[in-house]
Amino acid sequence: MAGCCQHCAGPDESGGRVWRRVLWIALVVNAGMFAAEIVAGVAAGSAALQADALDFLGDSLNYAISLAVAGLGLTWRARAALVKGWGLLLLGGWVILSTVWHAVTGSLPEAEVMGIVGMLALVANGAVAVLLFRFRSGDANMRSVWICSRNDAIGNIAVMAAAAGVFGTGTGWPDVVVAAIMAGLGVSGGFQIVRQAREELRRTRNGAMEPVLAE
């Protein structure tokens, strides 16, 4: 974990404007990809694509929350990060249940659709991750956004690997395995965010102060 100065001090006015602009771009990209991927996931019968689509939805909500608290102090940003962290944990739980259902029913997804949509999602998330890279060492709220974007890009690569596995084996198990991995990423990221947000809230209760970000 980086030193306190990185987490206690918000970005300057120029940095705050850049942060909000990046969040708006990320919000639009993720909302659009959620709509495209949930339709493709249901049509293709892919647990991995549906899990990835739900992740896009969660990220869209996360970006919206981050925009709402972008000009506020550390306490409010940490509270927002705490909500997002618990949201990731809940999404991870949903993916686990969905994965179990697909494993039990033995459904066979359409590998071609998985591969094409996974590639489009990777391009979208890769672009967002590049934009967010400079904020990866910020406070819990900023770091939570970076973690979500990073996990998404990893998940997209995994979806493409699952598509290749389904195509090569003729079974749905690669899809199930990837969905389980994505659930693990979500749960792990959620725990990281919750832990850091709680630490920042503890510091503010102990008297650590931070200036409000400029609008």
Automatic annotation (TrEMBL):
Keyword Membrane in annotation: yes
Domain Cation efflux protein transmembrane: 23-69, 80-201
Membrane topology, record value: Multi-pass membrane protein
Protein name: Cation transporter
GO CC annotation, single: membrane
Keywords per UniProt: Membrane, Transmembrane, Transmembrane helix
GO molecular function: monoatomic cation transmembrane transporter activity
Pfam families, sorted: Cation_efflux
Localization in the cell: Membrane
Transmembrane segments: 22-49, 61-78, 85-104, 116-133, 153-170, 176-194
Presence of the UniProt keyword Transmembrane helix in the record: yes
